[in-house]
Prior knowledge:
Elements: H1 14-21, H2 42-59, H3 80-101, H4 122-139, H5 160-188, H6 192-198
Amino acid sequence: MSSPSLKDLPKVAFDLKNQLEGFNPDNMKKADTNEKIILPTAEDVKRERQHNDLIHGVNNFSADKLKRTDTLEKVILPNAQDVAAEKSQKAFTEALIEGVGGFDTNKLKHTETQEKNPLPDKAVIEAEKGQQQLIAGIENFDPAKLKPTVTEEKNPLPTKEGIVRDGHNRHSLSECFKHNYNIIIQQTGRTWRQLKRERI
């Protein structure tokens, strides 16, 4: 295989060619290469050793070291109560099967099946229709049909004549109480303090 001629080689751009020719390796920064070899910890070594010992013990295990043991198969026989219970259960099952197999269907009473499907009466239909109309009216309500209203807060204050009249009524009521107390004092002979203590 012959080497390619100069004209067949790929052409490098002029700018890149000038940069490559004028490159100075002294302008590069020096960097130290650190080769790091991470050694296993003591726990890793211990874990690996235990794993290797386990595999070695399994591979080199000798079956001659096993002790011979005799397997005892225990068959528990049923006692008298278990036998009697099983017999009574068997007799009941046989009687039940015989009763079902020999059942006479002529002993059954004749019955007529009535299928009831009560339809709602007119009142129930009208009530349901009214409820549906109410729900439809609420769901389809247009708030644009509402008329604007102005809320007026009224808190009428008493007039001057009302205040004077109220004070006069209180004064008259106080005079009435005093008059009644005086009558009670005259009739019972008690003092004002005694009546006040007894809250009469």
